[in-house]
Amino acid sequence: MATRPKKKRSSKKSKARAVPSDEAAFLEAYRAEDFVRPSVAVDIVIFTIVDADLKLLLIQREEHPFRGAWALPGGFVRVAEGADQGEDVEAAATRRLSEETHLDPGSIFLEQLYTFGKAGRDPRTRVISVAHYALVRPDLAPFVAAGEHASDAAWHSVEQLDLDALAFDHGEIVQMALERIRGKVDYTDIAFELVPQTFSIPELRSVYEVIKGQSYDPGNFRRRFHRMQTDGIIEKAPGKRITASKPASVYRFVRGGER
Amino acid sequence: MATRPKKKRSSKKSKARAVPSDEAAFLEAYRAEDFVRPSVAVDIVIFTIVDADLKLLLIQREEHPFRGAWALPGGFVRVAEGADQGEDVEAAATRRLSEETHLDPGSIFLEQLYTFGKAGRDPRTRVISVAHYALVRPDLAPFVAAGEHASDAAWHSVEQLDLDALAFDHGEIVQMALERIRGKVDYTDIAFELVPQTFSIPELRSVYEVIKGQSYDPGNFRRRFHRMQTDGIIEKAPGKRITASKPASVYRFVRGGER
DNA sequence: ATAATAGTGTCTATTAGACAATATCCT
DNA sequence: AGGATATTGTCTAATAGACACTATTAT
Fold first, then answer.
1. Is A131 exposed, middle or buried (0-12, 13-18, 19+ CB in 10 A)?
2. How far apart are CA B252 and CA B11, in angstroms?
3. Which of A215, B103, B152, B187 is deepest in the core (most CB within 10 A)?
4. Chain B positions in Cβ-Cβ contact with residue A90 (cut-off 8 Å)
5. What are the start and end residues of each CATH 1.10.10.10 domain in chain B?
6. Which residues have a Cβ under 8 Å from the Cβ of A169 and sit 6 or more positions away?
7. Considering only CA atoms, which residue is closest to the C1' of nucleotide D17?
8. What radius of gyration, in Å, describes the C-alpha atoms of chain B?
9. Which secondary-structure segment (H or E) carries B99?
10. Does domain A186-259 have CATH number 1.10.760.10?
11. How many cross-chain Cβ pairs, A to B, lie less than 8 Å apart?
């Protein structure tokens, strides 16, 4: 449990010590190396919905530990010493997201989820992971696993996924991500991130049904979104969605149209 | 922006390398020192409500940087190398909370808020902070700033606090904590964490009013909590709360009584 | 024509909110 | 007695949900 001074107890906090009078000198005197530091990583739960099935992107590990097991995409936050301290945590998540999906980060919803910091969660060394979750539109999903590294990245249906079989504590992370989107879909606009640019009300309803794991009355659901239309949150788009039965009108989400 | 290998590009990820066949040997071969690591800290926004005034606990910094400025209580997560990797992030937050308040951690609500990881947020070195927020019951608040270190820790009214004057990015952290409790008070039980063990409906209403910054109709508010009583979330307690006018009945929160 | 699903209408129960009226206690 | 606030009651509007009904298209 030791962590404070590593070598020389350099009198850091003792008030008796001679504090450099100007701040610049103090910064130089600060000895960051005196403390054992953890590695910090980002992990991302990347969701999409295709054919009314909630999926997430996993990577098969090629190295120990958990070799062969499926894991969340992730990586270490790039840190540097000196004036440039490296990349923001948020930037690390964005970077890994686009590296993994080969998609424009601007078109993908990304948000911090929770930081998992239990000792021992990575057997190699102390790793604290800032978990995120992302939402990929279904029309973009087919392009994702098509990159050069297509071999080891793949969409997995949440339905038939064994969370306990995932590497590290990633099952726990996925569990929390699921709870988060189930909660947020009710009071935010995240559902529109899981639907194509133009969508029909029944398509949107399907997103809610998949995320919440329950069915919604078509009539009542439609009325609920009719209110969004009068509020300017969504607007009618040209054309119709052709299905096996009666075609449906298509709509478009108006960014920042809440009020 | 450099961060990958530090000295020897030891062929970590090259598939051509001879991977130790058993996992134990691999773990030993892992060179954690090859990467520059950040420091990881916890910071805690400790709230209480006294006399219908939302307050938070701040500490006056005695050292550079931001010497003399007010800052959130916090500290580094204790990390170790070897089999014992140190303390959990959650444990670090709990530890700092009780060190700072001298109260039983079991009687204080504590939850992770968000991780602040912008490069440069601490001018000394790269520090990533896992921010938390805590809620202290008003009857315990007076004991907090009474410890030995009473000199530099004090409750500050949020009302008259200049967030931009806080050290580091702590103003931003407080801002997010405020938004969090304003949102959560509507759909969770956190209001009961800011009220004594026994409380009257008007007292509880005051908590809502202070957090949300709006007033509630006494009659309507009362009916809203009468439903909680029939649901078993709260129950009547003996005695009455004596005030300057008509005394009110007192209630008690039933933990886990939601259903 | 029929199946299937989009879309509309109707009714009921629940809840939020405005607001009036009454009860109870302190001073 | 008078002031203040707890507590109860009443009414209206908004919303959720159940459910029946109509419209439109593919086959």
1. buried
2. 62
3. B103
4. 117-118
5. 186-259
6. A116, A118, A121
7. A220
8. 23
9. helix B89-101
10. no
11. 163
φ, ψ for residue B189, nearest 5 deg: -100, 15
Computed over its alpha carbons, how large is the radius of gyration of chain A? 23
The CA-based angle A243-A48-A209, given to 5 degrees, is 60
Give long-range contacts, CB 8 A cutoff, 24+ apart: A57-62. Answer: A57/A100, A57/A101, A57/A144, A57/A145, A57/A153, A57/A154, A57/A155, A57/A156, A58/A153, A58/A154, A58/A155, A58/A156, A58/A166, A59/A100, A59/A152, A59/A153, A60/A152, A60/A154, A61/A167, A62/A152, A62/B15
Tokens representing A225? 């979104």
Domain A36-184: CATH architecture, name and number where available? Alpha-Beta Complex (3.90)
Residue B39 has pLDDT above 80, yes or no: yes
Closest CA relative to residue A38, chosen from B73, B42, B65, B25: B42
Which pLDDT band holds residue A224 (cuts at 50, 70, 90)?
very high
Using DSSP's 3-state secondary structure scheme, residue A5 falls into: coil
User: Cβ neighbours of residue B239 under 8 Å, at least 6 residues apart?
Assistant: B198, B250
Residue B80 to residue A36, Cβ atoms within 8 A: yes
**Mind listing the pLDDT tens digit for each residue in A107-152?**
999 999 999 999 999 999 999 999 999 999 999 999 987 655 556 8
**pLDDT tens string B198-213:** 999 999 999 999 999 9
SS3 at position A96: helix
Q: Rounded distance, CA A161 to CA A166, Å?
A: 9
Rounded to a whole number, what is the distance in angstroms from the first to the last CA of chain B?
A: 52
The pTM assigned to this predicted structure is 0.88
In this structure, what is the dihedral angle of CA atoms A224, A230, A235, A240, given to the nearest 10 degrees? 60
Tell me the HSE value of B107 on the side-chain side, using a 13 A CA sphere: 16
Running DSSP on this structure, what letter comes out for residue B170?
A: H
